[in-house]
Amino acid sequence: MPGSTTLSAGHGSDAIEHTDAVRLASVLREMSALLTMDGPNRLTDAQVSALCGGQVHHRQEFGDWVARVAKELSLKASS
Predict the structure, then answer these.
(1) Which of 23, 28, 49, 54 is the Cys-Cys partner for 70 at CB 3.0 to 4.6 Å?
(2) What is the DSSP letter of 45?
(3) Residue 28's closest CA among 73, 59, 79, 75?
(4) 52 with 44: CB under 8 angstroms?
(5) Rounded to an integer, what distance in angstroms lies between the CA atom of residue 19 and that of residue 48?
């Protein structure tokens, strides 16, 4: 549906506005790049930990998850 994107995990589902879904996918793609790039703009381990609620996560695992969610959200938003 052009006006919203439905997100579902298991039994329930939530919807967000289409423009918000597109914007969120863009933010997640940028975050994915900041996780994987080298150089001064790369997210630090402390920043990655903060994004993960203080839990220790492997940068690669978190980066892969962010990239996957961005891709899935982009696909749903373009449907």
Answers:
(1) 28
(2) H
(3) 73
(4) no
(5) 26
Paired with 27 in beta bridges are none
**3-state DSSP assignment of residue 27:** helix
Quote the pTM value.
0.74
Q: Which helix (H) or strand (E) holds 32?
A: helix 18-36
| Per-residue pLDDT tens digits of the chain, which is 79 residues long | 456 666 566 555 567 788 888 999 999 999 999 999 999 999 998 999 998 888 777 888 899 999 999 999 998 888 7
d(CA 60, CA 26): 19
Round to the nearest angstrom and report the end-to-end CA distance of the chain. Answer: 7
